Every structure is written in structure tokens, then in C-alpha cells.
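Weekend entry, working from home. Most of the wet-lab plans are on hold until the incubator is repaired, so I used the time to fold the two sequences that have been sitting in the queue since the last round of cloning. Logging both here for the record. First:
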Amino acid sequence: MKRASVSEAKNALSGLLGDVRRGEAVLITHRGKPVARIEPCRDDDLGADQGAAELVRRGVAAPPRTPLDVERFLKAPLVRLTAGASAGDLIVAERRDDR
């Protein structure tokens, strides 16, 4: 990843954006400490739901690693809760099994 100080970024923004257009991310530093990252937009970023984008920005959620395979999703068996179990219990157990 390319690094640039705030002053370097101000003076060479067009060049840095050219690097970003070519797929390279740029880390902006202030007094040697990272403060921002400029990275290429994905096509789906342009129409992203603003609420989801805000959660990603705050680090509460992560963007999907792969596009949703709708056919596979619709063919997946439905999960049925057993008596006395909560959806939260099911999610915790599923996450524990994925480790």
C-alpha cells in the first residue's frame, strides 16, 4: 500500500487518485500516524444502502466477501427452532461450530 503524508497528499492528489483508479490503496498519514485510507470504489459501493454503508464505516459490520448466490440461498434448508431455544442461541451455536 502506498503511503503519503497529508502535505504530500495535498500536493499530489491527482497522482494519488490515478494510483487509486489503477486499483492501489493509499494510506494518508499525519506525523507518521495513519489517519485515512483512499481506496478504489467497487461498482456496488455507488448504490449501497446508506444505513449498511454507515455500519461498515463505523466498523460494526463488514461488507460481504462474495456476492450472494441467490439460487443456493433459496435452496438451503429452513432452520427450525426447537422448543425452548431462541434465535440468539441458534446463532451463537452456529458461530461456535464455524470455528
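Second, folded right after the first finished:
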Amino acid sequence: MTKTPYAAPATTRPARWATLALTGAALVSVTVGAVLPASAAEPQRARVHGTVRGHQTVDTVALTALMEPGPMASGTMVRVGGTGHARTRATGPLSQDPAANFRIGSITKLFTSALVLQLVGEGRFTLDTPVQELLPGTLPAHWEPITVGQLLSHTSGLQKPCVDFGQGETPTPEQVVSHWTDPKCAAPQYPVLAQQYNGANYFLLGMVVEKTTGRSYADEVQRRIARPLGLRHTYVPGPGDRTVPGPALTESGEIEPWAWAEGGMISNAPDLERFMTNLLRGRLLKPAQQRQLFVMPALSVGAEDRFSMGGLLRNEIDGTVVWGKTGSMGPSTSGVFATEAGRRTVVYSLLPASRDRELMRKHLTALVGAAL
């Protein structure tokens, strides 16, 4: 069975740099009763639906049951949007403000992907351009060429790091990449035989954005995405900035090191909904790059987490194709998903209470399924 997105709370994980491949898993369809105790799952028998321009609205009974504080999560925020519909609700120790900010973790990768595909559309480089040409000296000279397209689609062959950063250290992107390329660590295996999710791919892409444009990654996010779309709560915090401006989803526990273009951004549910809708409707990319967003590489077949050439996570829930991304930062886990052309969107953020990864994956799948 394909895995559902979940990353364990920070207190149960080793250093982030050694575990990035665990975030962003795929979605599968499960029933609420397979996740929650019978008392919580019981309301699903009375499913409540309406229609919005031919699309079902939220399964409010099932969604409410899944959001109640309990064995899976101590607090949950869900925003459902799309054609003619928007609703936000939060339970437990989370802000009830629909504009509450939170750290979006690896959802950041979708912003990085959009920037890179915009630069491809401008002719700055192609998906087949080796990153070694764009970032000379960053990767070991004896490595085989790794293309921009391979980084976007997690087919680069980059392996997990074997070196950890010191406690409290705020590394530069170059230092992060150096931990993946340390001679003591495993080199990429050629030929690459499978898609393998790896945050190092997106640190390299962030460096490509800066090298190509001559501007900081944070500035390019604002200039190319946040300001044009009116995303007033979306930005890249600077190194060492672990604050979340209010109103904010209430979190506890230590915020992990600066994750930059791989997973460091702050946003809120309305902004993520707007970004995802505009991305899927082709308002950020030229037609050729828009098509690339949805191309599934051959190496994604059979992979636990299936990512497109544009870095979108793809799967089906009850026969409906959904595209999106999950992310984790500190004690929370979040996600944004949408159906074709953003006709229905769901953004969630929650504080996991369970340390059982498989149950949490199923819980998140049921949560997204009820909202779609």
C-alpha cells in the first residue's frame, strides 16, 4: 500500500538533515474507521454533502470527527477552498484565526520549483542543464552530471548525508550541500534506478536561483510569486530567525535549523490556497513549463512517493487525482493539495499526538479525502 504523508514530531526524530527523505510521502484512500476509534468514526455513516457547481462540498461530519483532538492530533487546522467555496476551521491548541501564520516546511519546495521553471521559461537554462555548469565546484568533480530536471523530480541519485550539524548551528546552503557530498558519505549510484525524495536537491536549486538571477532566494520569492499573487503572509525568514509573526498557529517545541529553499518558508492557509490555485491554473508558468509540472518521470513508477517533473506529489483518493506537497517543521506537520486546475483545495496544519507513522499517514489521507 502506498504511504500517506507524515513526519513524526521533532522530539521523535534525529537531526533534520539526516531525515529529509522521510517528509512528503504520497496519499492513498482509506476509511475514517480504519484510523480512529469506533466512537470517533461512527459519524461517517451519516455523510453530509452539498454541491458547488457540480462538485461535492466538504464531508463535514467526517471532517469534524477527524479534527477533534484525540489520539492522532492534539490540534488541527483545515481550510477548504476552490470553486465557490472557502471554509476554515481549527480545533485544539491552535489559533482560530483563518489568517494564522505557520512554518510550511517542505511545502517550500513548490515555491522553489515554480521559480526554477520560470527561469527555464526565460531561457536561462534548460531542464537538461547539468547543475555542475550552473554551480561550478559545488559538487565533486568526479561525479556524473546531475541535471536541473533530475533535481526537481528527485531523480538525481543523491544519497542521505552521514554528517550532522552542531547543536544550534545555522548552516549556509553551501554547508548543507557539503554534508551530502562529504567524501565519507555515499556518492550517487549510477545509473539512478528509482525516484528518491531528498531535500539536498532543493538546496541546490535554491543556489541555482541565486546564481542565475543575482538576487537572493528570498527576494525572488517575493518578486516573482508573493507580490504578484498578493501573498502578504508568505516569505522566507532569514538565517537564525525562528519567530512566527502573529496571529500564528500555536506551536510548542524547538524549531529546527534554517531550511531555506528546501523547507524554511512561512505562510498561512489563504496564501497557500491562492498559490496552489494559481500554480495549477497556469498563472505562474509559461505553457511548456506548465505541462512539465504534471509529467511523471519513468523512475516514479513503483516509488513510495511519486513526484512529477515539477516536484508535485501525485496520487489518487477515491479515484480523484490530487496534486500537492506535505511539510514538517518543529512539532507540526502541514500539507496543501488540490484537484485538477485547483477546483478544490485543502490546506491543513496539525500537531501530531501519535508516534505511529502508519496511523498518522492514514489519518492525514482521511483528512484530505473528507475535504475533497
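Plan for Monday: verify the second prediction. Residues 357-371 form the longest helix (15 residues).
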